[in-house]
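pasting for the record
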Amino acid sequence: MNKSLRQIAKELNISVSYLSDILNGKRGCNEELMNKIKEYYSNLEFYIFTKPRYKVIKGVK
C-alpha cells in the first residue's frame, strides 16, 4: 500500500511542503532524516550531492 506525502510527512513529523522540497532537490536535510525518507521511498534511486551548505536528494523513478 502506497502512502501519500501527507501521511509520510506526518510520520516523519515534518511539513508536507518541506518533504516535497527535499524530494524535489530544493532543500537539504540532515543524514538521519535522509535515512528515514529512504525507508519510505526504497523503490527510488537516491543520488546525494554534497554542496558547501546543504545536501540535496533527487529521486529517480
